[in-house]
């Protein structure tokens, strides 16, 4: 009888990782999967387009939970996911990353004594002001099986006394990059201001900027956009739905002609933007890795390292949301060591499913 795994996803990076693992599960006769979408990313451009592009199995249910404070969102998810797990009776629960969906899934499964597998375990920023750090710490310490993307993450787990239930499998996001880069497609960019299609510039910086610390205060976002407007002839900035009004207001008030605000793009389009950009500027943990995989210069607009493995040889440099800091970071020259592959061999999904079956 096939074992049943309940996979919980809710946000863009989780859809990407879950895609390659779901495809591997589908190849096997001894395991079957049911997928639950919490609804954390609810906008079609941040959710359904990824299911369509990546051929992810349709969720057995979408809980439609988004918005509110971290506590409110997590509490609603916790209650709903408990009911789902009691109804579906999975043999194990599979979680990815560090979102509120991850935390709620981890607590629900742990309290119901359902074996719990956490992919991307052991990542640490050492910054407790970062809400994702709390999510990943809690999820790791209640999980049955901890699967690390890098050797550094595995070491973190060992140092926290979790080594006996931990192993290194590699990064499913690298699997996805290897698989889907072959079919990346030129984006059909829609101008956020006019709603009209706009051509992709021949030369551009690719910007993603959505974290609260960079967007909640319009002055902070203004500093970022003014600096990039000065440094680049064109900046392609697909705007997260929750930052839409803020970005439009900042650009209009400051007259930033080199900043191209667009509607969000799909995963295959984002891969194309990464591959053809002059450089990447981001506050996304996932895009940092994709820039690294593509051997593109990256500047990360955060106060802490999310993936220190990428921050070698000038390939990914931290910057504060200030003119001088961003300019200095972009000026750092990178060098590429092609033998350095901290995120595995591109076969993480196989190892993840093998590990699940070992439970």
Structural write-up:
The chain has 359 residues and is of the alpha/beta class. The protein contains 14 helices and 15 strands. Helix 1 crosses helix 7 (172-180), helix 1 packs across helix 14 (348-358) and helix 9 crosses helix 10 (244-254).
Topology:
Blueprint: E1 3-9, H1 12-26, E2 31-37, H2 48-54, E3 61-62, H3 70-88, E4 92-96, H4 100-111, E5 116-121, H5 131-142, E6 145-148, H6 151-159, E7 166-168, H7 172-180, E8 189-190, E9 197-198, E10 205-208, H8 212-215, H9 218-231, E11 235-238, H10 244-254, E12 259-262, H11 267-276, E13 279-282, H12 285-293, E14 298-300, E15 316-318, H13 323-331, H14 348-358
Parallel strand pairs: 1-2, 1-4, 2-3, 4-5, 5-6, 6-7, 10-11, 10-13, 11-12, 13-14, 14-15
Antiparallel strand pairs: 8-9
Summarize the structure.
42% of the residues lie in helices and 17% in strands. By secondary structure, the protein is an alpha/beta fold.
**What percent of residues are in strands?**
15-25%
**Overall mean pLDDT:** 95
Q: Largest sheet at a glance?
A: 7 strands, parallel
Radius of gyration: 20 Å
Number of contiguous helices:
14
The beta-strand count equals: 15
Structural class: alpha/beta
Give, in order, the helices and strands: EHEHEHEHEHEHEHEEEHHEHEHEHEEHH
Instruction: List segments where confidence is low: pLDDT < 50 over at least 5 consecutive residues.
Output: none
Helical residue percent? 40-55%
Termini distance? Answer: 15 Å
Give the CA-based shape.
globular
Q: How would you write the strand order of the largest sheet?
A: 3-2-1-4-5-6-7
Q: What attributes does this structure have?
A:
359 residues, alpha/beta, 7-stranded parallel beta sheet, 6-stranded parallel beta sheet, 14 helices
């Amino acid at each position: 009888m096939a074992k049943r795994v309940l996979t919980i996803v809710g946000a863009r990076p989780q859809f990407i990782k879950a895609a390659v693992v779901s495809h591997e599960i589908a190849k096997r006769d001894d395991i079957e999967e049911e997928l639950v979408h919490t609804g954390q990313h609810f906008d079609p451009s941040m959710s359904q387009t990824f299911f369509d592009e990546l051929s992810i199995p349709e969720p057995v249910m979408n809980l439609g939970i988004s918005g509110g404070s971290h506590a409110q969102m997590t509490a609603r998810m916790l209650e709903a996911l408990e009911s789902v797990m009691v109804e579906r009776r999975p043999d194990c629960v599979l979680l990815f990353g560090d979102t509120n969906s991850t935390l709620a899934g981890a607590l629900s499964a742990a309290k119901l004594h359902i074996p719990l597998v956490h992919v991307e375990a052991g990542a640490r920023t050492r910054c407790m002001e970062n809400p994702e750090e709390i999510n990943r710490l809690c999820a790791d310490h209640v999980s049955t099986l901890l699967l690390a993307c890098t050797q550094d993450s595995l070491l973190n787990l060992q140092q926290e006394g979790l080594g006996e239930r931990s192993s290194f499998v590699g990064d499913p996001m690298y699997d996805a990059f290897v698989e889907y880069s072959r079919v990346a497609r030129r984006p059909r960019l829609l101008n956020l201001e006019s709603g009209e299609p706009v051509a992709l510039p021949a030369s551009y910086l690719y910007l993603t900027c959505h974290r609260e610390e960079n967007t909640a205060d319009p002055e902070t976002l203004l500093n970022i956009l003014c600096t990039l407007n000065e440094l680049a002839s064109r900046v392609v900035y697909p705007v997260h739905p929750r930052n839409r009004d803020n970005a439009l207001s900042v650009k209009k008030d400051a007259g930033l002609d080199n900043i191209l605000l667009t509607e969000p793009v799909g995963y295959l389009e984002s891969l194309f933007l990464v591959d053809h950009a002059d450089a990447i500027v981001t506050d996304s943990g996932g895009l940092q890795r994709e820039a690294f995989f593509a051997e593109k210069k990256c500047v990360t607009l955060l106060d802490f390292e999310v993936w220190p493995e990428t921050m070698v040889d000038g390939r990914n440099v931290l910057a504060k949301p200030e003119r001088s800091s961003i300019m200095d970071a972009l000026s750092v020259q990178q060098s590429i060591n092609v033998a350095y592959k901290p995120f595995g061999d591109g076969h993480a999904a196989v190892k993840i499913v093998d590990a699940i079956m070992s439970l």
